[in-house]
Amino acid sequence: MSAFLTGVALFLVLNVAAGLLRVVRGPTQADRMVAAQLFGTSGVAILVLLAEAGGEAALRDTALVFAILAVVVSVAFVKRGWVRKLQSAPVEDPAEGGEGP
Amino acid sequence: MTSLDLYTVAGALIFALGLHAVLVRGHLFWKVLAINVMGTGIFLVLLAAPARSTPGVADPVPQAMVLTGIVVAVAATALALGVALRVTARTGAPFLPDPDDDREGGG
Amino acid sequence: MTLPPDFAGGWMVSLLDLAVAVLLVALAARLLHTRNLFEAIVLFIAYGLTLSLAWVQVGAPNIALAEAALGAGVTGALFLNTFQRLAERSREGSGMVDPEHGDRGPEAGP
Amino acid sequence: MTLPPDLAGGWLVSLLDLGTGILVGVGAFFFLAGTVGLLRFPDLYCRLHALTKADTLGLGFITAGLVLQLPGWNAGLQLLLIWVLALSAAATVCHLLASASLQAGIRPVEGADEEGEGP
User: Fold this and answer.
1) d(CA D72, CA D62)
2) Where does the pLDDT of residue C23 fall: very low under 50, low under 70, confident under 90, or very high at 90 and above?
3) Do D55 and A64 touch (CB under 8 A)?
4) What is the C-alpha to C-alpha distance for residues D56 and D31, in angstroms, rounded to an integer?
5) Can you tell me the ipTM of this complex?
6) Residue B41 burial (CB count, 10 A)
7) CB atoms D82 and A82 under 8 Å
8) How far is it, in rounded angstroms, from Cα D16 to Cα D22?
């Protein structure tokens, strides 16, 4: 059973590696951010499987952190990292202008 | 060749890749990224090599060093990104100013 | 790849280690040599999460916890924040640099 | 669930192993479907749909399969908490990215309904 669970974890790692192709080719920035969510969910699954296969209960705590992480990164992206297209959104946000001389 | 040897070799490769990128890339943000990657390569060697000598038993001293190193790397990254933003604000581009010309970017 | 007989988990674990190590090196090579800054940032976040998996395999789950929270989460948010500041700066400024394609061109070298 | 020693190793354990194998296999299939959708769908919104729904369902199957292997109810409760957290995380991320993309002017791909995919 342990070898089977580790094999499924290996399959999920290869799955994530295939999904990272979308980061390389994604046309928009949001397409690239989707891959972070992919890694969050798959990472939770991999860690839970490894926790059961190796008998290490501490890995489930790491899985909890993985689950929160995609939210943190995506919220940071939406709040701070979004660059509007110049032609489609001509209105600049005056509250967030670049400060400094 | 065990798995821990594999991670040691991967850490050395990652360190070499990061060092190459620090030297080659001119963009300041890639320099910060590359310094981060270099540090993680060192962490990988530092954790995988002592775990190989005593299999099954984790050595707590390298783990404490790596844990401290992660926190320090985050703080240093924040500082470096702030400095890079100031360089961009001064010179108009996220590159180090050329020391040969003193037309712009002087203090 | 021959494993010592006392190595728990057998050959499947070593295959998993091989996949994680190859993915780490490939991610590092791609994120350090791409021309797109945003792609490099997202790949760095993915690199941090893969490194966390590597530390689980090395036998340090506490460091995997810290790496996932600090190395991937906080550092990724820092890079995203700086990316937006840089994009604002170059859009309102002289336009010397395109934030999507960071290098200035062939004359960027020394 | 701790089995009494006369039952351990009997037919119940092998039945639980079989259930774990089936559930984890189905979960891995849903992860594969999510990745195929991420790579093949034409649009950001379709990709978000495929990724968040299919992967979260796959994670639910995998945790349900692993609960059958656990010795006590403590760790099972933790696995349930992990799944609920991943569920809310996927919903939040999908909503945030989709609404931000709409506001930024990325239009969904038109014409998918004319091909007879929609109801």
Assistant:
1) 18
2) very high
3) no
4) 8
5) 0.84
6) 24
7) no
8) 10
Shortest Cα distance, chain D CAs vs residue A101, angstroms? 28
Location of structure tokens 């014409």: D111
The residues on B that touch A, with CB distances below 8 Å, are: 86, 89
What is the nearest CA distance from B63 to chain C, expressed in angstroms? 7
As given in the structure block, the two tokens for residue D100 are: 């931000």
Q: What is the mean pLDDT of residues C32-60?
A: 90
Residue-range domains of chain B with CATH: 3-91 (1.10.287.3510)
Whole-number pLDDT of residue C95: 43
Q: Which domain holds residue C26?
A: 11-93
Per-domain residue ranges of chain A? 2-79
Q: How far apart are CA C51 and CA C90, in angstroms?
A: 33
Q: How far is A73 from chain D (nearest CA, A)?
A: 9
CA distance D13 to D24: 16
Residues of C in contact with A34 (CB under 8 A): none
pLDDT tops 60 at residue D65: yes
Q: Dihedral (C-alpha) A48, A54, A57, A63: value to the nearest 10 degrees?
A: -30
